[in-house]
């Protein structure tokens, strides 16, 4: 019967630590995170979590490991930080990051007076919307 090598041995054999990020060169899950088998019947482990637990220690209860480098295949413990799920989502998600924006792309401030709801797209700048409407009406006026 074939014996399975310990996870530590198999884990570091597939890590490319030649750069700043320690990139996992093995299999990845659908989210792009490295995945490695724990054993025949134990399922898979997420690589960055396994490396953290081997080199740093247990992951605190109620926390996720946030990739500060934003590279999901990275397993360098210096690039990971245990944070709450809310902080991790706010740091990483584009949609979650939108509320942090204080100005629109044209530099107008997102104040209560200058902000419109924009359906599934979050919010819109009232000044920009008014400018677009004025330009539309001007174009319509010249064509008729």
Number of strands: 8
Mean pLDDT comes to 85
Task: Give the total of domains.
Answer: 2
Helical content class: 25-40%
* CATH A-level architecture of the largest domain: Alpha-Beta Complex
Strand content: 15-25%
Radius of gyration: 24 Å
Distance between the termini: 84 Å
Which CATH top level class of the largest domain fits? Alpha Beta
Total helical segments: 5
Question: From N to C, what is the helix and strand string?
Answer: HEEEEHEEHHEEH
- Which spans of ≥5 residues are poorly predicted at pLDDT below 50? none
The biggest sheet amounts to: 2 strands, antiparallel
The backbone outline, from C-alpha atoms, is elongated
Question: What structural class results from the helix and strand content?
Answer: alpha+beta
Strand order of the largest sheet: 1-2
CATH fold topology of the largest domain:
Homing Intron 3 (I-Ppo) Encoded Endonuclease, Chain A
Textual characterization of the structure:
- The model has no long low-confidence stretch (mean pLDDT 85).
- 10% of the residues are buried.
- Helices cover 32% and strands 19% of the residues.
- By secondary structure, the protein is an alpha+beta fold.
- It has 2 domains: 1-99, Homing Intron 3 (I-Ppo) Encoded Endonuclease, Chain A (Alpha-Beta Complex), CATH 3.90.75; 101-144, no CATH class.
- The longest helix has 18 residues, at 126-143.
- A hairpin with a 3-residue loop joins β3 and β4.
- The protein has helices at residues 7-13, 47-55, 85-92, 94-97, 126-143, and strands at residues 15-16, 23-24, 35-39, 43-46, 64-67, 80-83, 115-117, 123-125.
